[in-house]
């Protein structure tokens, strides 16, 4: 694998920056990301202060290396917005990834 963890993480950082810039209505609760081995691939956690994209770093390197970043990572955020729109549901906070505890 020639993709470094840093270059793969740069892809996520760019995605988060672009999402926060284009979703100005979400400025109060912006997106952030956390690399973690506590999950197998990817997940989303919503708190009162953020929407966090959780990403396993080994899995991230694999999807970036295989040119699947858009389908496997970026589309996760798109899907989150579609589910919210289609169901009309507001997502309530669950686990806070910044408090150091497991969920």
In helices, the fraction of residues equals: 40-55%
Tell me the β content: 5-15%
Q: Give Rg in angstroms.
A: 14 Å
> How many domain modules?
1
Per DSSP, the total helix count is 3
Weakly predicted, low-confidence segments: none
| Overall strand count | 3
Order of helices and strands: HEEEHH
Rough shape? globular
Structure description:
The chain has one domain (5-87). Helix 1 crosses helix 2 and helix 1 (5-22) packs parallel to helix 3. Strands 1-3-2 form a 3-stranded mixed beta sheet. The radius of gyration is 14 Å and the shape is globular. The protein has helices spanning 5-22, 57-65, 69-87; strands at 31-35, 42-46, 51-55. The chain starts with a helix and ends in a 16-residue tail after the last helix. With 103 residues, it is of the alpha+beta class. 45% of the residues lie in helices and 15% in strands.
